[in-house]
Amino acid sequence: MDTTTAKRDPIPTCDNCVEPAIFFDPGLQRHLCAKHLCLGVELRVIDSVTSHGMVHDGDRIAVGLSGGKDSSVLLSILSHIVPERWDAEIVAVTVDEGIAGYREETIQSAVSLTQQLGIPHHIVSFHSLFGTTLDSLLGAHPLRACTACGILRKKALSDAAREIDATSIATGHNLDDAAQSVLMNYLRGDFERLLRDSSSREDRGFIRRIKPLADVNEKEITLYSMINGITGHLPECPYATTAFRAEVRTLQAAIEYHYPGASHRIIQGQENLVTMAHKSMTDRTIDQCSVCGDPCSRRICQACGLLAELEK
Ligand code: SF4
Ligand code: ZN
To answer: Which of 56, 84, 145, 263 would you label with 236, given CA atoms 20 to 30 Å apart?
Structure first.
């Protein structure tokens, strides 16, 4: 075949202007150029934050900044939209878990971004908080890396947020993360976690957690980061391939590809279940961990239970 004369499909243009499209949203059946993709992402974040009352005047928001693309995009967007609308302060908090060959570069990326945006930045480490790094703690248990890392990082972030008198913690969880978490809880049969209504914890000892990127998917965040030069190429965590989440991510991506909008419906289904179960869930009592004193619904919180188990 003569490839010089073969007809090529014309590059589609943006549905909002005449620029070439760089993204097709299969759910909404829309082509978008770089500018309108970024505008759409920002508008969705503003809508999430305002419709869910995530930010109030007088807030000090601790943004969990790993240095990866999700949290970096979150910090970048919040640093622009919050000062224009609220009398609230933003502080970035990075947790150094102690993962050799990975964390150094992402921390450097976090430091550069906060300097560029003029945002105060606190770095806390597992070593200073728990007396050990994730690498040393795991030792013979590498398959539990992400479970241990997630539980301890959550505690480290909460402790750091309390230390700086933050009123809320913002994390970069996106739409795909949320759908994966629902699927993981189903696949583990963990209905207690599936039905947990985290929004009800605010007044019972926990610092409020907000997820302003919850309506934005991973592909949009990647493109937003590239278009705006927010993060460069970063290494992947060496433990990432051992995670159950990695397998569920592949599954969720395939479901979303074949059934556009499925991730939204998975999350909506879980929210409906939470609403239905809410009455019985409100009867749960919140107590204090007997080791560290953090609020929890058991005798010992997840972080202290895990540390005790790994030290055996
Ligand atoms: Fe932690 Fe797992 Fe993420 Fe690595 S991939 S940073 S071990 S949660
Ligand atoms: Zn456009």
So the answer is: 263
Distance of CA 249 to the CA centre of its chain: 14
Q: Between residues 285 and 302, which one has the greater pLDDT?
A: 302
pLDDT for 137-150, tens place per residue? Answer: 887 666 678 888 99
Lowest mean pLDDT among 54-58, 108-112, 264-268: 264-268
Q: What is the pTM of this model?
A: 0.85
Ligand 1 centroid–CA 304 distance in Å is 19
Q: Is ligand 1 within 6 A of the CB of residue 148?
A: no
Question: For residue 1, is pLDDT > 60?
Answer: no
Give the position, in ligand 1's atom list, of the atom nearest the Cα of 240.
5
Residue 185: how many other CB atoms lie within 10 Å: 17
Closest listed residue to residue 30, CA positions, set 265, 260, 263: 260
Task: Give the number of other Cβ atoms within 10 Å of residue 165's Cβ.
Answer: 10
How far apart are the CA of 237 and the centre of ligand 1, in A?
6
Separation between Cα atoms, residue 230 and residue 239, nearest integer Å: 24
CA dist 85 and 95 (Å) reads 28
CA 202 vs. chain centroid, Å, equals 18
**pLDDT averaged over the chain?**
89
What distance in Å separates the CA atoms of residue 132 and residue 248, rounded to the nearest whole number?
30
Q: Is the CB of 145 under 6 A from ligand 1?
A: yes
Residue 214 near residue 43 (C-beta atoms within 8 A): no
CA of 234 to the centre of ligand 2 (A): 29
**How far is Cα 291 from Cα 280, in angstroms, rounded to an integer?**
28
